[in-house]
Each structure stands twice: as structure tokens, then as C-alpha cells.
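lol ok so funny story. i was supposed to be doing the assay writeup but got distracted and ended up predicting the structure for this chain instead. priorities right. anyway since i did it might as well share w the group, maybe its usefull for someone
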Amino acid sequence: MKILAMYLPQFHRVKENDEWWGEGFTDWVTVRQAKPLSDDHRQPREPLGDNYYDLTDENTLRWQAELMKQYGIDGMCMYHYWFKDGRQILEKPAEILLNNKGIDMPFCFCWANETWARSWSALQGKNSWACKYEKEGSKGEKAILLEQQYGSKDAWKKHFEYLLPFFEDKRYIRVNDKPVFMFYISYKISRLEEMTDYWQELAVEHGLSGIYFIGAFAENTVDGILDEKMVPAPATALKLSLKGKKSTLFTDYSSVWENILNNNVNSTNVTYEALVDYDDTPRRGDKGNVLVGATPELFEKYLTLLLKKNSMSGSEFTFINAWNEWGEGMYLEPDTVNGTRYLEAVKSARENYKNVFCSTPVQAVTEGLTQLGQDKDSMYFEYLEKWMTLRDRAYSISEYFKENKIEKIALYGFGMFTKHLSAELENSEVHIEYIFDRQWRGSLRGIDGTECIPYDGSIDAVIVCSFFYFDDIYHTLKNAGYNNIISLRAIIEEKL
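and the output, tada:
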């Protein structure tokens, strides 16, 4: 099993970013200027030793290569940007690496095949990572910054010829002597099979054994076009509709990892991506997404399970998102809070995988993964079916609140039923004032979820959306002064 980290080559100045987002702009600007949204929201994230590096400095690449090796990471999967007519951006770090053979950094490319557009644009599938930094009056400017078009054989040949010196480099990562190349959004390439077949021909003509193609977002791609499929890690597991509230989406870290570990794509040779953490509020402000509850210890636990899952899925790779996505909170690089603990977690997970899982019968590991969410899944589907029966009878949960003169509520628990209830109440007279949970480490109202906030009179009831440990939750809320504590499960049962 090879562990590869996704690598963002953005941390250096380019004329396009100067023009679009302001002179001297890199993602470090977003990272430095990030603001916390509550007392428990950890922003800004700060690199250890004030290391706001420049990726055009080859010494930075040397430092990253040494760190990678020290903690058991086998290589970097570098984002590669190639647009219409061969237009490039952010290519310099890879070219510096190519020209400095002494930097021991194995690498491969992931073609980030998206159109870049201003964030306010209605364009579908845009890359809008700098939405906080729109220049004043920019809405009158051209929406598309860099357009992604794939062309035909002439364009494909030009692209291949640029990639060839990298493919020939001894440090380039290979499978069966074939250089690895990933498509980030495979389904957007309408002539994918024709393009990959042509590149295979060109590779053989130039003395290579071929190319090993991996496709992300490729679940619906016909088997055989790609050598392997990569399932990207979701940054969020649910979406909540909160009336009158900021649109920040908070999601429990473990729920996302359960999604990753329980996901099964019906295809051969599949690898599932690991997620370090996630918080894109430096880029998106209060319209961002935040994972809560991430720790190096949990990351080690889940990564260990994922290494085995990927080996059982027919892959020799596990991709980690990411090495240095500081603007989205996805990074292994040392910071001022955790130091090198996430890197140490990778090293420990590798050792756990070797020492435990490699000598564990496949059946036992499969049972362990299945058990992770088995009990919750069983109850979830049972009550989802009951809820759908109520909907078939044209009954909405909002009617229960109306019957009991409940207008303002808090929701307890971050899970799928919270999502469904939030959506059902969106167009009703019931207002969701806030949401909290014992595992909650951030809040829409500054709630510290390790202890419930005292009742302040702003709500009529707390609706407990968690179907487990209701008695414990009830007593916690009761001790904090809440009186009207209602189980969503009980509402469904009563009305059915």
C-alpha cells in the first residue's frame, strides 16, 4: 500500500492571481486573514514556525520531501492545471521539481480539469475558491477566468508532450512501469475513452509501457476505460436549512469518516480517499463548511481502517486529502496547535496496517468495517420507512408543532434525521434557532457542546434527533434548565 498526499501548488505569486484577486495574492492571504465564527472555531490556522513558504523556492520542496519521507508518505499527487489551448497556471513548482533531480520527492499528477470562474457566476461546475476576495465592481467583468476545453487529437498531443518529461522522470510514480495520471472530474470529459486510448498510443511510441489512468468522480464511468477509480472523500455528510441564520454548514468529523468507510462502489480496482480535516471558511467566510471533532487520534484510527479497505478493493494506493490545502483546513503539514501529530498519525496508521491488518483474516476485517455503522443503519432505515409512511398520508412533522403551539425549536444531534427534519420544516412556521450536540466543538450561537448551554428562554422545545442514548441526553438537557424535551422518534411513533 502506497500513501500519496494531494498537493496544492498554489503558494507562489502568479500574474493571474495578482490581476484577479489583488497584488501578491496566494492562498496564504486567505489563511492569514481568516476569522473565527464562534469562540470554539479555530481560525486562523497557523503553520508551525511561521512557515508561510514560497513554492518557487527549491528549499521548500526539499523540506517537504524530507518531511514526507520521515513520516511514511510515499509521494505527492500534485494538482496539474491545463486549460483551453494549452493555457497553464501554477505549473512552476512541478517544473522546479523536474529540474532538481536531487529532491527526493516521488510524485504524480492529478489534472484538476475544472473551469475557473468568479464565485458570483451562475456557471455550473466552477472553481470558486477565492469568493471572499472578489474585487469591488468585479461583477461587471468576465465571469470565466480560465476555460476548460478538451479539444481533439492535436490538443491531446500537445498536452501529452508537455507531460512526457515528467513521465520519464525516475521519481514519477508508476504501476507496472506505467506512469500514474489522475483525472480529477472524469465524468466531464465526454471523449475520455478516445483521449486515453490516444495517450496510450503516444506513450508506447515514446518508449513508455503505457499510462496507468486513475479517475476521480468516475463511479459511472464504464469499467475498462480507466485502470482504477478514486472515490473522493466528502467534505460534508449533511446539509441543514436554518431560517434566518448564517449559512455555515457544520458537520461531525466521525460521521464523514463513517460515510467513507461504509461506501462501496460496485467496480473493480477502487480506492477511497482519506480526509485529514476540513474548514473552508478562510475562502468562503460564513458561507463555508466546517468539520468538528477532528483529532490526530481519530484520523489515525480511521486511516488504519481505510488502508485495509483500499487493499481489499484492489488498489495499492491510498490518497490523503491533503498535504497543504491550508485554505480548506486539509493539511498534514505542521501547525501551531498540533505540530507534527497528523504526520505522526499517518506513520502510526501505516504501522498499524502492517502489524495488525496484514495478518488479520479478510473476513474479520470485513466484519469490523460492517459493524461500524450496522446498528445505526438498521434503526435509521426502520424509522425512515415510518416517516415516509407519514408523508404518504400527507402528514408533516410541522403539524405536530402547530398542534402543540411550538414555534421556535432547537435540534439536538448532527445526523441524517436532522437533515431530513430541517428540510421538512423549511417552508413551515417553525423556526430552528440553533443545533447542538455533546460532540459539538463549534456552534451557530457559540455553544460549547461538551456541556449543554443553560436554557435562556429563546425556544419552545428541544427536538432530540439522535435515536441513541435518549435518556442520557434528556438528563443533560434537563439539568441545563430545558423543560420541553421531545424525541423525534417518539413523534414519529405517536403519529404513525
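The chain has two domains: 2-371, 375-495. The chain has a mean pLDDT of 84.
back to the writeup now i swear
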